[in-house]
Amino acid sequence: QVELVQSGGGLVQSGGSLRLSCTASGTDISTYTMGWERQAPGKQRELVARINDGGITNYADSVKGRFTISRDNAENTVYLQMNNLNSEDTAVYFCNAGIYVSSIFVARGWGQGTQVTVSS
Known about the structure:
This protein is an all-beta fold. Helices cover 0% and strands 58% of the residues. The relative contact order is 0.32.
């Protein structure tokens, strides 16, 4: 199990930016795929972005061009830079670390979640 601690988030006006951080404790994340997911009130949790151990990224269509996921393996940290935020981005954001098993992502650890609220 990978222990992950999140930071960042908060309240921002529409069009603003935030950066989320997620740091692993006691685990080298360099071989893990790292990701961010979010859950808005009354909605299912959805994938926001992932970055694999080779640095290849993928994003939900709704955040492409606005969000950037990156990783610093030396710091055991993954980031989510969120720009041009809108009210649809309001949600609790969770980071995770995992591996692919038969092409299915299996999480090995989750962050505690952080609230992002975008006011219009």
